[in-house]
Amino acid sequence: MQTVNRTFRIPQSHFFLSGPRGTGKTTLLRHSLGPHLSINLLEPDVFRNYSGHPERLTETVAAHPEYKIIVIDEIQKVPELLSVVHGLIEHKTGQQFILTGSSARKLRKGGVNLLGGRALHKSLCPFTAAELKSQFDLKKALNTGLIPIVYDSNTPPETLSAYVDLYIREEVMMEGLTRNVGHFTRFLETISFSHGSVLNLANVARECEVERKTVESYVAILEDLLLSHKLSIFTKRAKRQTIMHPKFYFFDTGLFRQLRPKGPLDSTSEIDGAALEGLVFQHLWAYREYHGRSIELYYWRTRSGNEVDFILYGEDHFAAIEVKNSTRIHPADLRSLKTFTSDYPESKGILVYRGKERLIRDKILILPCEEFLPEPGRFLT
Fold it and tell me: Which end is more exposed in the chain, N or C (fewer Cβ atoms within 10 Å of the end residue's Cβ)?
C-alpha cells in the first residue's frame, strides 16, 4: 500500500497520543517527526530496564541532549514513568515529550494527572476514507475494517483474527484484567450483538451467563483498552420523553465482524446494516477527535420509538444523521429525522445510504455513503 497521509496533526507541546494497538501511533510519529529519541516499552529489554528502575529515564534523557523530542511508546506498560516525565517537564529541559498508550486504565492508575494539565490528550483512530483517498474500498472496509495493521495486510481476515487473539491473550489475560478469560471470550461474542444498538447489560449478562456486575466490568475493560465507545442520549431542550440507556459501538467495524458469531438463522442484512452504521460511527468519531473535542456525539431515541442514529452537536455543528443499508429511500426512512428536525429546527438532517444519488427530500439531505465518508465535514457544518 502507498503511504497514507493521516489527518492527525502533531502538536508542538507535550502530549499523550492514545489509541488501540495497530492504529499506527508509532508509524505516524516515525514519519512525522524529525530526529527524536524513541523508547519503546513493547521491547522486552527496554521494558525490563525501565520497569525496574524508572528513574533511569532521567539519565537517558540527560545523556542525549541532541534530541529535542522524546517519544515513549506504550507508557502504560510502566506507568511509574509518568512521575519521572512530570519531573523532567517541571525542570523545563527544553525537550518535547510525546507519550503513547493503548490502555486508559493503566494511565489513570499510574497518575496521568501528575502532569497537571501540562500535556495535551490526543487520540488516533483507524484509517478514514479521507486519509485513504483512492485506496479506500467500501466493501473491504465493511468486511475487515480500517485498522491500519489489518488494512495494510496481504491477508486482512487472518490478520484481523490474530489481532483479536492478541488482545484477549496479551491485554486481558497477561495484564490480569479478568480472572476468567473463558467468560470474557463468551462476553465478547455476546456483546457483538449490541454493536450499533442500545446497551442492555441485563440482557448481555443473561446471554453470556455471567453476573451483571461482571458484564459492567467487562464493558469497562473494552472502554479502557479503547476498543469500544458508548453514546449517550441527546436530551438538550427535550420536547419528548427519551430513553436513557447508551448505545454501544466497537471502535472498528472489522472488530465487530470478527467477533459477531454467524449462524443459519442470522440475517445478512442485519449484520451488514450494523457494519455500515459502525463504519459511519467511526468516521464521525474520528472527525470529532481530529476537529475539536468541543464537538459531542450522541444518539436520539424517544419512548414512542423515534430514533436517529447520530447527533453531532457543538461549536458550529448541529446535525442529525441516520444510516440506512439500502439503495432506495422510502418515506418511513425519513420519519425520525423529520421528527427531530421539527423539534430542533436549528439542526441539519442527513440520511446516509447505499444508493448512488444525492437528493433532498422533505428538507433532508440524502447522501451516498461513498460521498459522505470521505468528506463528512463538508456536510456537517
Answer: N
Q: Give the Cα separation of 122 and 183 in Å (integer).
A: 32
Contact at 8 Å (CB) between 18 and 102?
yes
Strand ranges, E, within 27-92: 37-40, 69-73
Q: Which of 1.20.120.1200, 3.90.79.10, 3.40.50.300, 1.10.10.60 is the CATH number of 15-123?
A: 3.40.50.300
Q: What is the dihedral of CA 47, 50, 51, 54, to 10 degrees?
A: -160
Instruction: Report the predicted TM-score, pTM, of the whole model to 2 decimal places.
Output: 0.92
Domain boundaries, the chain: 15-123, 129-380
> Of 17-21, 90-94, 157-161, 314-318, which has the strongest mean pLDDT?
157-161
Residues 325, 305: Cα–Cα separation, whole Å? 19
314: helix, strand or coil? strand
